[in-house]
């Protein structure tokens, strides 16, 4: 069966992964995030309990 022969397809897959790892990944990792995480803590809101009329 020709689809079980990995001879030409393995080299194509290996070349595409090497292209991704060596060329594309450093370009993608050098991009800065549009919304960087902040270290500011959110203030906690003080909530008051509800006064129920039937208690």
UniProtKB/TrEMBL annotation:
InterPro entries: ATP8_metazoa, ATPase_protein_8. GO terms for molecular function: proton transmembrane transporter activity. It comes from the Eukaryota. The keyword Cell membrane does not apply. Residues 1-30 form the signal peptide. Residues 32-55 are annotated as: Disordered. It is a single-pass membrane protein. Keywords: ATP synthesis, CF(0), Hydrogen ion transport, Ion transport, Membrane, Mitochondrion, Signal, Transmembrane, Transmembrane helix, Transport. The keyword Disulfide bond does not apply. It is found in: Mitochondrion membrane. One of its GO terms (biological process) is proton motive force-driven ATP synthesis. One of its GO terms (cellular component) is proton-transporting ATP synthase complex. Belongs to the ATPase protein 8 family. This is ATP synthase complex subunit 8. The lineage of its organism: Eukaryota, Metazoa, Chordata, Craniata, Vertebrata.
